[in-house]
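Handoff note, outgoing to incoming analyst
You'll be picking up this chain. Sequence as last confirmed:
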Amino acid sequence: MGAGLGIHSTPTAAFDPQRLRQSMQQQYGQAGLAILEEWFALLQQLQNQDIQTKLRGVNDFFNRHIRWVDDIQVWGEEDFWATPLEAMGKGQGDCEDYSIAKYITLKQLGVTSQYLRMIYVRARIGRSQITQAHMVLGYYSTPDAQPLVLDNIVPSITPASQRTDLDPLFSFNSDGLWAGGSSESRADPLARLSRWRSVIERMQTQGFI
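Most recent structure output, in case you need it:
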């Protein structure tokens, strides 16, 4: 599924826990605040752990706390990309919401976007030859490494070479947009992906970045 770039760095500078609490309280009440506090506890628990522990902890947290539900049922839209606050507040989401939440959480834990990409794929579900659009999060340990895949369908983190059910179409992060399995960025993701731009803008308002 291609290669990645970079190494780890510091958490997001503009992260504002108090503003996040206020946003969650206003939009989702006490139930939303409860899961947000669990998320804060997760950050504290994982902050000084090794990367494998961070990947497992974040992957398991969102796979456990968010129930897969189609966007039409949750948001009344066919393809809505939620912020982590919105996904946690609803307790529901689809593949993009899982991937975005895991990406933002790992960045807050000090993993730079150079190591992470959200990967759009065609996925074969079960033994069927029929494919459907799906998104996963990829972690690239070195520029030439195959990514580890964090997914909501297959809960275990596995190398991309073992996910023969996935056919990558494009990938992106905060810094670039890649076609297929390419290791060279082709475009500014904010310019090309309007839904990602909307997520970034709402996260800024909510206190994530």
